[in-house]
Design goal:
mainly beta; Immunoglobulin-like; six-stranded antiparallel β-sheet; four-stranded mixed β-sheet; 1 helix; 10 strands
């Protein structure tokens, strides 16, 4: 008898005080991969370094677009450099085959691809490789004000 009274009382309370559920939007199904999607994110509130790793067999140059007093810096084949100085944000880093590189018989320098990873120490590692035949190349590494990293 006590169980019947308890169940009846709980059912009555449930009808008297309905639970309000907040509607939730389903996740967007419109995601489209492309250069407008960040490839990684960095925490701008912590110290940060950028490592450039040239895994090509050609000499490269890199330069920030907002530091005109510093000329493009060389990056030799198979070399790794670490940029530690404070960067103005947003930062646009251009990475291209060296301007001193002889133009190949094909008439065009190889396209480059950037693979970006951020580790727990807030080090952004940009590995530069030669793009495949069907790959679109990259020339710009962009660090946005939000910490989002884009390559295009």
């Amino acid at each position: 008898m006590k169980h019947l009274i308890s169940v009846t009382l709980l059912a009555t309370l449930g009808l008297s005080f309905p639970i309000t559920l907040v509607a939730q939007d389903p996740p967007a199904r419109t995601y489209q991969p492309g250069f407008w999607q960040p490839v990684a994110r960095v925490d701008l509130n912590r110290p940060m370094k950028i490592q450039l790793v040239n895994q090509t067999n050609i000499p490269l140059e890199y330069d920030f677009t907002n530091t005109f007093e510093v000329p493009p810096q060389p990056l030799k084949p198979q070399e790794t450099v670490t940029i530690k100085e404070q960067l103005p944000i947003p930062a646009y880093l251009l990475i291209n085959p060296s301007s001193f590189l002889e133009t190949p018989a094909s008439g065009a320098n190889p396209d480059l691809t950037f693979n970006v990873a951020v580790n727990d120490d807030n080090v952004v590692r940009v590995t530069i490789i030669t793009a495949g035949e069907n790959d679109k190349g990259h020339s710009t590494f962009n660090l946005h004000e939000t910490g989002a990293i884009y390559v295009y």
